[in-house]
Amino acid sequence: VEIEALGAAARFGPHDPADFQAADLVVVSPGVDQRLPVFAAAAARGVPVMGELELAARFAHEPVVAVTGTNGKTTVTELIGRMLAAAGRRVFVGGNIGTPLCRYLDGERGAELLVLEVSSFQLDTMEVFRPRVAVVLNITPDHLDRYRDMEEYARSKMRLLANQGAGDAAVLNGADPWIRRLSGAAAVRRVYFQGRRPGEDGAHITPEGIDFHLPGHAIGPLSAADIPLPGTHNRENVAAAVLAARLAGGTEAGCRTALAAFRGLPHRLELVAEIGGVRYVDDSKATNVDAVVRALEGFTAPVVLIAGGRDKGGGYRELEAPVARGVKRLILLGEAAPLMQSSLGRLVPPGTAPHRDAAAPAARA
Fold it and tell me: Which of 15, 61, 71, 96 is catalytic?
């Protein structure tokens, strides 16, 4: 094993509590619930238990722009990084996407700013991590197979703001009730990329484009033609990215340059092909109900929807209206297929596929 060649011991199979209680530090992968008994027992004995991001935060001195949310965080993180780079700033982009922060710190470093995607699982073990600019995009049902309820999940997301103070900024979704209620009263500058109320700074999204009000960081309006990404949700993403980039020291010119060149990311409403008048779109990064709802809102032609996979809890009621409105056929697969069929099968003709490779042929049949 490669790790053993580096002088580390490797353990496979069930956890041995002795390994954790004798450790000086336990670093938990985000995919592993830090509330498991072996970790709780170690913590009770005074052993620090944290995730990779929290470990890295103790050694990183560069200012951080951190992005979280149920949906859109990868797109917004990438956009912010490109906007800052287009303004001439040296930027590291990573975290929950691409390169972990610890790997950056173990390399040559050299960035002026760190732009990080952050998941709720990473925030669960946060203690000192402090973003200078925090972005919370939305909080909708997800990972309810891991969290007790939406309250616990929402509070996990909002931990991103917990260590912020004077001089820091938060870019928030003012139309999201969870974010409004849990954003706290810390002395940070709050700006809202949607749902902005009278007297608040931020952005206003219209059918014509996006208008900004950000004193000290002037930004002219963006027209619909300036935004190359489809869908209302992407206007929200663009508004959040522009606000965060400007607050982090980017320029208006850099924002416009990066946006004009941005064509979206793989597996996010990505057009794969158009054959015989049928468009094949890959949106496989839509791994929760709200993401699928947002995707369906962007189509006017009838949709054959391939969906399923792992069930995360929370149900499928929010899909009923968009499925009834725009989906002509369902192809379901995986663990979630019976639950989705029970909820949605009365609305449109459902079909099933035994595995992913069979889904597209079944959709064409």
Answer: 96
